[in-house]
Amino acid sequence: MGCVCSKPARGDERKKKFRKPKPWRHSEPITRAQLMQMREEFWDTAPHYGGRREIWDALKAAAEAELSFAQAIVDSAGVIVQDDDLTVCYDERGAKYELPKYVLSEPTNLIRG
């Protein structure tokens, strides 16, 4: 058990707290249905680009969860977060996982309705 002034255990430096990606803009306004289709296509094809299926599943769960739960999911899966917005990650074997911003947040030019 630690106290307020305790330091992270050795080896915990790799666990970055992350945040939502910075606001981004799609090349043209898109609807929520189009965004969901893009996300579905990405998650369906992502494992074919390499890496382990269970890490992709953990990253998908983290992308769809609230930040506090997402942090726990990533930590428990052993994912090493390079960028604090979760766009670039590695597994413990060194495989790289790149997530596009559209699976992590909504664009500023999303058409509502």
Automatic annotation (TrEMBL):
<dbReference type="Pfam" id="PF16455">
    <property type="entry name" value="UBD"/>
</dbReference>
<feature type="domain" description="DC-UbP/UBTD2 N-terminal">
    <location>
        <begin position="15"/>
        <end position="112"/>
    </location>
</feature>
<dbReference type="InterPro" id="IPR038169">
    <property type="entry name" value="DC-UbP/UBTD2_N_sf"/>
</dbReference>
<dbReference type="InterPro" id="IPR039869">
    <property type="entry name" value="UBTD1/2"/>
</dbReference>
<protein>
    <recommendedName>
        <fullName>DC-UbP/UBTD2 N-terminal domain-containing protein</fullName>
    </recommendedName>
</protein>
<dbReference type="InterPro" id="IPR032752">
    <property type="entry name" value="DC-UbP/UBTD2_N"/>
</dbReference>
<feature type="region of interest" description="Disordered">
    <location>
        <begin position="1"/>
        <end position="25"/>
    </location>
</feature>
